[in-house]
Amino acid sequence: MIVVVAPGQGSQKPGFLEPWLADPQLADLLGSLSAAADVDLVAHGTTSDADTIRDTAVAQPLIVAAGVLTARALFDRVDRARVAGVAGHSVGEFTAAAVSGVLTDTDAVALVAERGRAMAEAAMQAETGMSAVLGGDQAELLASLDELGLEPANYNGGGQIVVAGELTALAALAEQPPAKARVIPLQVAGAFHTRHMQPAVERLRTAASAVTTTDPDLTLWTNNDGSVVTEGARFVELMVGQVSSPVRWDATMESFSAAGITGLIELAPAGALTGLAKRALRGVPSVAITTPDDLQAAVDLIEGAA
Asked: What are the strands, taking DSSP E only, across 93-179?
């Protein structure tokens, strides 16, 4: 049983889409997705610098478009019915919605572009950010967050929690971290998946009400609590609410394990989720698709699954 996963914000790198656009069909698809997002995804995926693609309003549609392209290329080579299911981390859930048929490719990218714009505007209301906390005792960390007015944003599993809130509070946490924990500031524009993003939730909910959803034709797990969602409209509702609530990737990986997943494939821009899987899903083989050269390894993993 092979699961396909889609990464979240921060996984993009300058020029990472260039090798994919050697395929004329994928180049045409990216052009269509650019039009849907009203963002020049071709330029941002090939020539834009790191600062430009770090912008939330650019990064989110760019990452989802990359996942859509990767999935198209993968399933042109192997029957998608051989995949057990799909899930996405944070903004990667929009990729998962497209892969599973909940949203069309263009609707997924158009909606996530609105999400990116809304979250970028919400982030401008206060000086906030995010930090990864590695190691330490989770209960002690959560108590420290309460004292500082910070919130857990991503439960990533493998001993990693991303926390978010005001920059001054994050600095205080870094100065006095919980025992045996390291605090690493992340290069993001705001406190995503916390109360600071509530204005973006309402804006995204309005945009989501205008799109048509279909029930997924692949098993689809949610970051909300790691459960399987069988109704497309419910999945979109959860994606909207997730903007201001924590990502439970730890619970999602626990559900993979309970379901008997035997392999994991991460869509481009890949690397983060396969890294987490190596710690939390020990012994489960994985493939990170970063360039078209990685597609054959993903095909082999799917075809080799029982």
From this structure: 128-135, 151-157, 160-166
